[in-house]
Amino acid sequence: MKSTRRSFIKKTAVASSAVITAPTIISASVFGANDRINAAVLGVNGRGKSHIKSFMAQDNVRIATLCDPDMNLLKQRQKSFKETYNKDVALEQDLRRVFDDKDIDVVSIATPNHWHSLSVIWACQAGKDVYVEKPGSHNIWEGRKMVEAATKYDRIVQHGVQLRSSPAVNEAIELMRDGYIGRVYMARGLVFRWRGDIGDKGTSPVPAGLDYDLWTGPAQKQPFTENLVHYNWHWHWDYGNGDVGNQGIHETDLCMWGLDVGLPTQITSMGGKFLWNDSKETPELLTSVYNYPDENKIIQFEVRPWCTNTEEGATVGNIFYGDKGILVVDGYDKYKTYLGQDRTPGKSGEDGGESGTGMDRGDGGTDGHFANFIEAVRKHDKSILNGPVETAHLSSGLAHLGNIAYRTGRVLNFDPKTEKFVNDAEADKYLTRNYRPGFEVPQNV
After folding, report:
1. Which of 78, 336, 436, 438 is most solvent-facing, going by the fewest CB within 10 Å?
2. What span, in angstroms and rounded, lies between the C-alpha atoms of 82 and 298?
């Protein structure tokens, strides 16, 4: 699948206004098979727990440090780490001290979305290789800066879309490239998740042990509320991107990969809050359409929050439409096809099933995706990454474009080469944000 992935990256690379300089003086370490890699996990509440497990599943990788603004969480993870692995691990609240630690070789980032790009940039500047959770960025401009930093500092950056390490999904992509379902003209992304009423807890004092200033980071500081910390920041614009920018990044990524397209030129979205009178700012329900008139292709994307049907058996996944049939990817690691008007079942595959990999479906292939990352780090070879930094920018960017169309309430025209909207100053404002002093994403990385 390397040729397919490389052709996708080449096709979807876009021009940047910044000049990429020659490689910096930071040397690129190449590890031998017997060299231990020291890792740090940044953000330990949600996906960070999976990062810990996946790092520890790799040969000769040691987690040296856990980092989180909340010391209460850190102490819980330290205790469970000792109980599970019979090993000690250092704790650190400030990620900048982790980047300053010369003994740390790689970091994984599972912080809230608003921290992702800046964390990647700082890590690259410090000479660290990086695994970053989806979405790679909180907005389009900082996503481009993240790509520039990985290039300038010659770092290995893997995006946490683990379905790209699924043999079954790679097999599905190859089938579409080979014309198995004919000319593929449309992709549909599905995110049907049970997202309930989160209420409105109002403001309250900052809990002891939480460095709320560090948690806020690049965002503008607001009075503390449990509506944000630790999970429900996903549904507030300053920190998250709604479910299209949460679960949905796996599916935006696969839509673009399967259609072999980059960012679109026309976008429209509609949705809102229809169920809960709670503190969420992002829409519960969102339907977006991304048009590619030059390629004669289109992406439809739908987020639903509650009682719903399945589509072709999938509630989270993708459906690709060709002129000879359809291909359905269910979740992270299986697919099926139906051919012709009579919907004759065609080829299918599943990790641990027909593909025979034995991958743990419960982890969605996270262990395998980390293994791919560590291999690339050891060889210092970006070309073997399954989810390189460009995918982090582009798949996140597609979600951001849908959100911007929703927030402006109209059809938007976008120029993928400049990564700006066409004569639309109002929409352009959503391409970046006002960064808090001390936490600015740099213009020149």
Report:
1. 438
2. 50
